Amino acid sequence: MAGYILSGILLLILAAVLIRRCFEMRRLNTLSGRMEDCLTGRGGRLPLSLKEDGIARVENAAAEMQNRIEVAEERFRQEAGRTSNLTADISHQLKTPLASLRLFCEMDNSAHREQQISQIERMETLISSLLRLEKLCADGYEFNFESCDIRRLIELAWQQLQPLWPDRTLILEGEAEIRCDEKWLSEAFRNLMKNACEHTKEGGLIYITLEQTDRTFHCTVEDDGGGANPKDLPRLFERFYRAEGQSAQGAGLGLAIVKEIILRHHGHISAENGTKGLKFTISLPLLELVNK
Q1: Distances (CA, A) of 180 to 130, 150, 176, 268
Q2: Domain-wise residue ranges, the chain
Q3: Assigned architecture for domain 146-285
Q4: Residue 150 CB neighbours (<10 A)
Q5: Confidence of residue 245 (pLDDT cuts 50, 70, 90)
Q6: In the chain, where do the E strands start and end?
Q7: Do residues 61 and 287 make contact, with C-beta atoms less than 8 angstroms apart?
Q8: pLDDT number for residue 18
Q9: DSSP 8-state class, residue 222
């Protein structure tokens, strides 16, 4: 009889341990889901726990981490705002003398008139691009997220570029429909395809593949230009950075703007040398409730 009683007690203890374990796993799974929602912009604040167990310490640490991230983001936004305002002030101050200089050059019959106007136009483009980049970094633009056919978006962007590079060919594979800001994402793809055109020879090919899963959109943009020097890859998204041998005609801000646009979509972009040439990989979460 004592043996049966002991066995019953052990079974009760085991059942209690298993039940507690199930509750703990449920709490951990709930916490994991909430943390993932916060990272993708779909969730709210992580709650603090009043319990005194190990999982409660994890829950409170996660809530504290979220709070510190929000404080750091707010400080970053304030600093970025100050930088953006300074850049805007400088840019606006430069536009007036540039406009006057352009007018005098157009009135002048100098032998270098065309070159002078070309350099002024380049400076105007640089100022405009820098202002847009700084405003992007400071969250100065409102992003409107709506459902968009990405294949159609890329095709329209390519139609705008193709007259400049009629000998280049776009090979587009896959389908995807995601929530995004169509205007800004279209600019990102235009910059990537423009970069690919500039790094390929006549008859060059640009490959874009689209893939959509339950939670993520993946895209690769690759050219057949042979790739970049490995030492240049980590710095391609830096403003004003020019890889060795790269044309000096552009402002050097296109890829930096692309990166900021992708970040504003809560995504990630990377560069590597693929099998054919330089390859960019974009990953975006499938946004549902994010409006900015």
Answers
A1: 23, 9, 12, 14
A2: 1-140, 146-285
A3: 2-Layer Sandwich (3.30)
A4: 24
A5: low
A6: 146-149, 169-173, 177-180, 205-212, 216-223, 268-273, 278-285
A7: no
A8: 64
A9: E
